[in-house]
Design brief:
5-stranded parallel sheet; about 400 residues; Rossmann fold; alpha/beta
């Protein structure tokens, strides 16, 4: 079979070449001409899969190595008996770790303690639930909003949106939908921002269209929002540069781009493709997460702190060793003085050439407490630090 794949899916050639002839193409360059003779398309979110792309082609299977599939016309695929697979949950931990890094950065910048602060989580699926777990480990109080889950489960832990208005932080983790009872397009609009507590910190790592750009800019200008973190933007890659200048952290839609998450997503669609064509899978995620196929430039597998750090600053020091979110912010801000065409190309390039970022779970932390923490209170504070680091995903050597 002939397989056309987005070149930005890691190891896609190594993994799928045993199933057929594979050709790598940039996601925005996959066209009707490209797809015409393909049996399989493997894409990411920047490629729109619809009748315009697939009409007259022989495509029998489409896989997207992403958790969402707003870019897929499912009605067209179903009516033409075209198989489909996505990768739900594959990058959930990556996004949750990004949120933690962002919270720590904003807290330091604005001299805010996270312990005891409330965070409203809008959307409590694969990503939102992991964000809740990690925020809980940091001592934050989560208020959850997810109307579909509330109706489905009847669980009282899912609260009405109005109960989030008094939160210190709000973070968005919904899919992008344009109609129906739970439509999320411009969910965060002027009516959403107006009743929020003044000085709230707002984060969006879901989809750009979930937030009304004009309303967000107004809320920042009116100081309703003290700090904003955006990884996703309306009209990507032609993002609003005025908004980029206004936010505390801006990144090019890479929250879910951990190396681990990318490999997990690739393996999920690989196994689905094998199942669709009744083929026996030959690979697993471990083939690419360890051993000679793994890139050399990996994050550290162990870190030793000769004097155990403490408090919020200590947690941030550990996180920065693995993922310094300011570097992603700095790379995106480089587009501010570029002409439109170059800005858009650079936005895509930052995603396409994103450096390897491993997840916290791959790193062992050694806190050398026996030498530097003689007092009982120091030992207790180090134990609290250990629990928090373990709660956000690190492995602690004792």
């Amino acid at each position: 079979m002939k397989i056309i794949a987005d070149t930005n899916i890691p190891f896609v050639k190594e993994c799928f070449s045993s199933l057929g002839d594979i050709e790598l193409v940039g996601g925005r360059e996959i066209s009707p001409k490209t797809a015409k003779d393909a049996d399989v398309l493997l894409v990411r979110s920047i490629t729109k899969i619809n009748e315009q792309l697939l009409a007259g082609s022989r495509v029998k299977f489409v896989g997207t190595a992403t958790i969402g599939f707003e870019h897929i016309d499912m009605d067209y695929l179903n009516s033409n008996s075209i198989g489909f697979a996505s990768a739900p949950g594959s990058n959930a931990n990556s996004v949750a770790e990004y949120v933690i890094a962002a919270l720590l950065e904003v807290a330091e910048k604005h001299n805010v303690e996270l312990e005891g602060k409330t965070i409203g989580i809008v959307g409590v699926g694969n990503v939102g639930s992991k964000v809740e777990q990690k925020c809980c480990a940091l001592g934050m109080v989560s208020i959850l909003n997810d109307p579909p889950l509330q109706r489905q489960t009847g669980d009282e832990k899912y609260r009405p949106i109005e109960e989030l208005y008094g939160c210190d932080f709000i973070t968005m983790h919904t899919p992008l939908t344009y109609e129906g009872q739970d439509k999320t397009f411009h969910l965060a609009d002027e009516k959403f921002f107006q009743p929020l507590k003044s000085g709230v910190v707002f984060l969006n790592t879901s989809r750009g269209g979930v937030v009304d750009t004009a309303a967000l800019k107004k809320a920042i200008k009116n100081e309703k929002i003290k700090a904003a973190v955006l990884d996703v933007w309306e009209n990507e890659p032609d993002i609003d540069t005025e908004l980029l200048e206004m936010v505390d952290i801006g990144t090019p839609h890479i929250a879910g781009y951990s190396f681990d998450g990318k490999v997990a997503g690739m393996i999920m669609i690989y196994k689905a493709l094998c199942g669709h064509f009744n083929l026996q899978p030959e690979h697993s995620a471990e083939d690419f997460l360890s051993g000679h196929k793994t890139p050399d430039a990996l994050s550290k597998t162990s870190i030793t702190f000769p004097q155990a750090p403490t408090g919020r600053e200590g947690i941030k020091a550990v996180v920065n060793e693995i993922y310094n979110i300011k570097e992603d912010d700095k790379r995106l801000r480089a587009i501010l003085n570029m002409p439109l065409g170059k800005r858009c190309a650079t936005f895509d390039k930052l995603r396409r050439e994103y450096p390897v970022r491993r997840e916290f779970q791959n790193t062992n932390i050694l806190l050398a407490t026996e030498k530097f923490n003689k007092a009982t209170e120091d030992t207790e504070s180090t134990e609290i630090l250990r629990k928090k680091l373990e709660g956000i995903g690190f492995k602690i050597k004792r």
